[in-house]
# Entry
Amino acid sequence: MHSSFRLLTVHAHPDDEASKGPATIAKYRSMGVHTVLVCCTGGEEGEILNPAMDRPEVRENLAAVRFEELQKAAKIIGYETVHMLGYRDSGMADSEANSHPDCFAAAPFAEVVDALVELLRAEQPHVVITYPDEQGLYQHPDHLRVHDITQPAVELAADSTHRQDLGAPWSVAKVYYSTWSHARISARHQAFLDLGLESPFDERWFEQPNTDHKITTKIAVDDFSEVRRAGLLAHASQIDPASPFWFGLPAEVESALHPLDDYRLAHPKWNGVQPSETDLFEGLKPEDPAA
Ligand SMILES: [Zn+2]
# Structure
């Protein structure tokens, strides 16, 4: 029955789709779910983090290189459709890129929301995955904006009085926040220490508030851990194959530490008993997404 469902994720930059929940996408694609990626920026401000790719022709064409890397990663992960929202990477807070007229973080809020409304109405996803309100250590302006625009876009996409020129209204049934659980970060840190390796997680990681109690939904992804590795490596300009953070643990250790992708149900709002789900589409009927 999953083959009549549609899943749409909103990400900030090329490579975010490979670090946040790629195994979930691979799993649902294997079950026949239609999978759509919305990437809000071209990642023009990314630093080249792989020494092998730090070449003039890559530096000069970074947007084109990253677009190509994204297409490759999306195919590996199992996204059927990739939409670029068309904004420029805003760079880190207080950088010069923040004031570029085309940058995502500075574009008029209503304009950005409506760009997403149009895609939601066209793609008609039952489930949308976006970023949480608490974003821990990595407070990138584009990531914060992905969070800020998603819920308003979901609400306006369903509002028949709003911008009829952007398509027929569509009610997204559920919105989730993707998370990196505190438990998993701790377990990875410990695994490095147990193997006598230097952990890439310093104390700043553990000073972040632990929001694991807000996790509502755990997706078993044991069979899809390889796409995480392959999807990241497809972003050759951004991901150093020698990076301890991404690849410092043996693959089988990494996959044993990460049998579940964790999510928080953000919409509809739930009161009282916290949901405890094992499927993003739990409780939904394909013919009636609002059910
Ligand atoms: Zn990003």
In short: The first strand starts at residue 6 and ends at 11. The chain has a mean pLDDT of 94. The radius of gyration is 19 Å.
